Amino acid sequence: MTVTTEAVIIGGGVMGASILYNLALRGVETPVLLERDTLGSGSTGRSSGAIRMHYSTEVNARLAWESLAIFKNFEEIVGGGDVGWVETGYMLFVPEDSIDGLRQNIAMQQSVGIATQIVSRQEAQELAPAFELGETEAFAWEPESGHGDPSGVALAYSTRARELGARVVLESPATSVEIDSGKVVAVTTATERYETPIAVVATGPWSSRFLADIGIELPLVATRHEVFLLRRPLDRVPFHPGGGDMSNLIYFRPEGSDLTLVGNGNREEEADPDAYNPRLTMDFVEDIWPRLAKRIPAIADAELFTGYAGLYTTTPDLHPIVDRVDGIEGLYICTGFSGHGFKLSPAVGIVMAELILDGESRTVDISTLRMSRFAEGDLNTTTYSFRVIA
Predict the structure, then answer these.
(1) Model pTM score
(2) For 279-318, what is each residue's pLDDT tens digit?
(3) In the chain, ranges of CATH 3.50.50.60 domains
(4) Which helix (H) or strand (E) holds 72?
(5) Sequence-ordered list of residues with C-beta below 8 angstroms from that of 189, at least 6 positions apart, any chain
(6) Which CATH architecture has domain 2-48+150-220+317-376?
(7) Contact present, 146 and 88 (Cβ < 8 Å)
(8) pLDDT tens for residues 146-170?
(9) Which of 137, 153, 202, 221 lies 20 to 30 Å from 73, alpha-carbon distance?
(10) 52 CB contacts (<8 Å, ≥6 apart)?
(11) Closest-CA residue to 161 (of 67, 22, 324, 282)
(12) Is the Cβ–Cβ distance between 245 and 252 less than 8 Å?
């Protein structure tokens, strides 16, 4: 059967759902989202859910800051249901040899408008009494950061998009994008053909494979990452803020009333998105738990609760590709978020709608996220780039 629509979004994670909503909000009639399984069943459903602002490049910092305003006021701005927003604050820990980089990053972030500052060791201890703080470390504090529910956000965006006239088609993987005379003309599935002038590829860890099938080669790699949750001793650690620990190469955040989620920034492996191990491994626990205990000593006496693994879609510079495809009118790419997608998704949906409908992004300059940067050798790098993968 053939269906006619003004736009097709391929991929039903939080990014695809945000794009769908923002296109419908801007007046695109009956846009269609195609999801291979269920909403959020890929990387979104296995995200750590952390929401923080600390980045080393202005483009990511601006996208994160724009997104935070939406996360904090999601029901008023978007609606669609509870997205689990919890404000906890976020502390960054930096070893002595990276303090200059921290200062540069904080200055850039403050110029963007982000509520962040370097705090003294005494101030950090007052903010988080359970933390062990090194005498030569430096600390930054984001009072407005926290975490949310990635699957809930995807569902809320899709719910509101449907109310605005969009369609969400589940268990319907796209098989191809039809291109004729340098223009998108249709997106096909096993049973349907969607005639459309606009196709957005937001396929997460399947992106490299999907794009290669339509003749586009990009350095996108699916990588596997684990997290686990500990039930902490509440008499000793009743609460703690979220954190990015550059000294111990971990990130963490509270969950619910008595759990702590922890992951890391230096362990990853390439993975097949259709055949990877989604379960926690004890090797990971034995490596990461002691690192967390160095920062929160009482957590050594916690109880292992559960854990899981998910996939990032990684690029060489750990920045996404958010762009139109040169030479193919109507084809757009939104992928490669390298573990940062959820926290950037509200703003990315807006800038993608602007790119598609206005010809350029106005909310945030996304020129540094163009797909041609890899061939040009113009990657997003900074003198001091802290890889906080959460």
Answers:
(1) 0.97
(2) 999 999 999 999 999 999 999 999 999 999 999 999 999 9
(3) 2-48+150-220+317-376
(4) helix 58-72
(5) 34, 169, 172, 173, 174, 175
(6) 3-Layer(bba) Sandwich (3.50)
(7) yes
(8) 999 999 999 999 999 999 999 999 9
(9) 202
(10) 64, 90, 142, 145, 242, 244, 343, 388, 390
(11) 22
(12) yes
Cβ proximity of 150 and 44 under 8 Å: yes
Does domain 88-140+221-314 fall into CATH 2.40.128.10? no
Helices (H), 128-261: 150-163, 207-213
Quick check: helix, strand or coil at residue 333? strand
Q: Which residue has the tokens 């999601």?
A: 74
Cross-strand partners of 324 = 332
Token pair of 142 as six digits:
């984001």
Q: Where in the chain is the domain with CATH 3.30.9.10?
A: 88-140+221-314
What are 175-196's pLDDT values in tens digits? 999 999 999 999 999 999 999 9
Average pLDDT score over residue span 359-384: 92
What does the pLDDT read at residue 294? 98
The number of residues making up the chain comes to 390
In the prediction, which pLDDT does 265 show? 72
Give the closest residue to 310 by CA, choosing from 342, 286, 332.
342
Q: How far apart, in Å, are the Cα atoms of 205 and each of 183, 216, 371?
A: 25, 15, 16
